[in-house]
Amino acid sequence: MDAYVQKRNIYKPAQTNSIMPELIGKQKFVFDRIAKGNPAMRVIDFLIQNKDSDFTITEIADGADVARTTLWSGLLNFILDEGLIIKTREVGNAKLYKINQDDEKVKTLIKLHKNLEKE
Questions:
Q1: Closest CA to 54 of 7, 19, 86, 11
Q2: How many domains does the chain have?
Q3: What is the pTM of this model?
Q4: How confident is the model over 5-31, as pLDDT tens digits?
Q5: Residue 16 maps to which CATH number?
Q6: SS (H, E, C) the chain
Q7: How much is the CA Rg of the chain, to the nearest whole Å?
């Protein structure tokens, strides 16, 4: 069975108790190695892993494993103001966001992400 579940092309480790050798020792979020549990880094990590897709706030919260209230309590505005993410479009009342791959800080974070994945 595939170790990942697919929902709108979002890949997250499946919630399972089975022991799979290929997943032992792997971390769900690469940036947890340097900023364990930091909600901003989890959001950035999730968006980097899915950099070609855009997401609603609920999808970002679910994918990054952070509470929506955490995003709404200032985190979303912070990462938007920093230029790390951009609003891509609106579908009905929902606003969709994605990682801003043109931002120099994001380019640096993507390089760091790739280096941490290799370790």
A1: 86
A2: 1
A3: 0.72
A4: 445 555 454 443 333 333 333 336 777
A5: 1.10.10.10
A6: CCCEEEECCEEEECCCCCCCCCCCCCCCCHHHHCCCCCHHHHHHHHHHHCCCCCECHHHHHHHHCCCHHHHHHHHHHHHHHCCCEEEEEEECCEEEEEECCCCHHHHHHHHHHHHHHHC
A7: 14
Which residue range is the domain that position 22 belongs to?
4-118
The ranges of the chain with pLDDT < 50 are 1-6, 11, 13-27
Tokens for 87, please give them. 């609003």
Q: Angle, nearest 10°, between helix axes 57-64 and 39-49?
A: 100
**Pairwise CA distance, residues 56 & 105, whole Å:** 22
